[in-house]
């Protein structure tokens, strides 16, 4: 067995791997992906079983603690989460500092980073109790913060959490309720939202999770780490893709224009890509995309919504999956392909899509952060570089340059 660290120290050699396509950064027992087979498991449980049989908070417990909870454990966990759904009253003022048309992800980066300023009593990362409280706080407060970002943009009063509601229902309540009339959370929407949250809960060492780990490796507090994760998730090649999918489907607009866009996606001189297609790890159907497609049909049927964008999406999928280019490059729909259509049917604005992804992924981030902090071989993350700059230059004073 080669001691890699000793080898690096002695030889000064390192691996040059832009985009970390073949570099493992950590050991983890949380999530497993077999990209060729299209398999995703959390702590050994298949994602399809979890999405069909569990609530989001059950999956959150599983990711954090390693096992599915029994009834008593679950009730204790749910109680612990509901204890923390409120945010400090002064955080209202944070929201007021943003422009009304600010992107919710910009608001979330700021507000979540700012949580460390309010919750000092859970930022000692060497203390297991602090780590647990911070994890609960982040999972509990994220729906409140995301919903408030939406309410603020709408110019509506911010709705306080209701602890008599389950996690997904409470989020929908904070998104859509107004103080002047009663709001009943639809069980269909609540179930669909819960399932969407499960499907986005964790996905091993993707860009945002790696960002959370790298940030945390310096000893930064968990609120700052999750704020960094939110920033990374925002990009259109990552969590921003669900927003980009809906924009693309709207641009395509009608079935007859689908072939034109498939052609553009194949053109090397055109930067256009089919949003919601392709994945760094899956070279097969993303198992989450299959569940998402099914959920999309269920939600639209239950709501009696006929969305022509769903027809465009299905036609795009059909044509792309029969096309040589997509077959050869193993480009299949990913989790983001259908989620936007569901969100749209629910009345959620496009700008909130990635924010909801962030709220779901917070569970994975805190589970991965806890795993990293308690890993005895963990060191500060410090990638190397292949230096391509100038070798040596003689200094020239400014008036001689
Ligand atoms: N449409 C058209 N061609 C594509 C697409 C696409 N969506 N995705 C990849 N390709 C092509 C590339 O042009 C490239 O072709 P080449 O080998 O001839 O140069 C080849 O497939 C490999 O693509 P890479 O970008 O090298 O693959 P990588 O693993 O780096 O990227 C990614 C994966 C970012 C997801 C990419 O497939 C993409 O941009 N997809 C669209 C955005 C998207 O849906 N992102 C969501 C990802 S899932 C998530 O974050 C939850």
From TrEMBL:
CDD domains: EcCS_like (cd06114). InterPro entries: Citrate_synth-like_lrg_a-sub, Citrate_synth-like_sm_a-sub, Citrate_synthase, Citrate_synthase_AS, Citrate_synthase_bac-typ, Citrate_synthase_sf, Citrate_synthase_typ-I. The chain crosses the membrane at residues 337-360. Keywords: Acyltransferase, Membrane, Transferase, Transmembrane, Transmembrane helix, Tricarboxylic acid cycle. It catalyses: oxaloacetate + acetyl-CoA + H2O = citrate + CoA + H(+). The keyword Nucleus does not apply. The keyword Ribosomal protein does not apply. One of its GO terms (molecular function) is citrate synthase activity. Pathway: Carbohydrate metabolism; tricarboxylic acid cycle; isocitrate from oxaloacetate: step 1/2. The active site is at 279, 336. GO terms for biological process: tricarboxylic acid cycle. One of its GO terms (cellular component) is cytoplasm. Gene3D superfamilies: 2.20.28.60, Citrate Synthase, domain 1, Cytochrome P450-Terp, domain 2. Belongs to the citrate synthase family. This is Citrate synthase. It comes from Roseospira visakhapatnamensis.
